[in-house]
Amino acid sequence: MLKYLIPLTALIVASYCYVDPKDYGPALTKAADIVHQECRNISGATEEEILQTRKGDFSGGINIKRYNACLWLHLQVANTTLHSNLEKLKSLEPPHLKGKVAHIYANCAEKIRLTEEKDFVEMAWKSSKCSHDVDPENYIFP
């Protein structure tokens, strides 16, 4: 019984570890509203895949990875070689997280950019997972 209780507890806790879209603040809400449907159309990602990733489940397939890459580009927070735009990242931080998350995303992007990986979709995916792993409670995935 205990062997099932611990993973279940971890799953319940993990399901609440992200920034709810209602808490994005005006700048990110406006930007997310613009790119969300566009990136869904481009990638074929479903709302369920997006919600699962928002909750920290990075087991998704190519569609959600493409959605993520689309976000990075369309929000203009990085280019196709994953050079991040720290000022843009800062401008999108929710008010209650000012100074807390932009550097995490930029540092993870830099870390992944310096690896052997050169496929942008995979680089962006690994960078997002890194950002989640560093601070799951404040993870943002529009």
TrEMBL record:
Keywords carried by this UniProt record: Signal
Top-level taxon in the UniProt lineage: Eukaryota
GO molecular function: odorant binding
Species of the source: Phyllotreta striolata (Striped flea beetle)
InterPro entries: PBP/GOBP, PBP_GOBP_sf
Parts forming coiled coils: none
Protein's UniProt name: Uncharacterized protein
Signal peptide: 1-17
SUPFAM superfamilies named among the record's database cross-references: Insect pheromone/odorant-binding proteins (SSF47565)
A matching Pfam family: PBP_GOBP
